[in-house]
Amino acid sequence: MTSDRDRGTFITFEGGEGAGKTTQIRLLADRLRAGGHDVVTTREPGGATGADSIRALLVSGATDKWDPLSECLLLFAARREHLVKTIWPAMEQGAIVLCDRFADSTLAYQGYGHNVPIPFIEGLYASVVGDFEPDLTLILDLEVSVGLGRAISRNTSAASNEDRFEKMDPAFHERLRAGFLEIARNSGGRCVVIDADREPDTIAADIWDRVSERLSDAGAAA
Ligand code: TYD
Q1: What is the pLDDT of residues 100-116, one digit of tens each?
Q2: Is it the case that residue 125 has pLDDT exceeding 90?
Q3: Rg from Cα positions in the chain
Q4: In whole angstroms, what is the distance from residue 176 CA to residue 159 CA?
């Protein structure tokens, strides 16, 4: 079934901590805008007023502040607000929406990381999101030790308190890295794994190739 949403393109960025998603989203947005595309950049949890309030509850505080199932429910409540208030309206206008994390993060963090049953998360997805899914997901993959080192130095220098997930033990981060790779293998081509342990410009060129390929498949020349 086609809808007005199909006028837009939804591209998500995924990966563990410190994989460089923010930089890559900025570089891709600049390049797409230079080519005349209407681009909206956003992130999860967040991206709409109510979703930002939920984000504040999730990203700070003690690592065991939330039971993982409660955490899933909060994430999907935030996601629904984000879709209804930000993502779907932008797509109806024909925008390319670049989103820093989406539902694959819930599968990886809460599912593979915290052992919430995957069918529970898939059931929430079906009820809350329906059959909508990203046109392309770029998974920035990096050794856990390298990513955590980057994320910790970034948060120390920015005096950020958004470090609840980074503080989880390295075994948790290893599980979520393996989870993202499994999600990619099972995604039927929606997800592309990008080696994030390279220079930012090299990674950006790789991402550009993947995005232009998808846009030309969809009939929107990059
Ligand atoms: P953020 O500061 O955006 O982290 P990053 O820069 O690594 O993307 O914080 C978001 C945190 O929320 C991040 O640690 C991952 C976590 N998260 C989940 O656990 N599940 C989810 O579904 C989403 C969207 C994020």
Answers
A1: 999 999 999 999 999 99
A2: yes
A3: 17
A4: 25
Q: What is the pTM of this model?
A: 0.94
Q: Which residues pair with 137 in a beta bridge?
A: 12, 191
**Residue of the CA atom closest to atom 17 of ligand 1:** 105
Flag the least confident range among 67-76, 102-111, 134-143, 147-156: 147-156
Pocket of ligand 1 (CB under 6 A): 17, 21, 43-45, 59, 75, 100-101, 105-106, 109-110, 162, 165
We find that the CATH architecture of domain 5-217 is: 3-Layer(aba) Sandwich (3.40)
Q: In angstroms, rounded to a whole number, what is the distance separating the alpha carbons of residues 197 and 214?
A: 23
Q: How remote is the CA of residue 56 from the centroid of ligand 1, in Å?
A: 11
Q: Give residue 162 CA to ligand 1 midpoint distance, Å.
A: 9
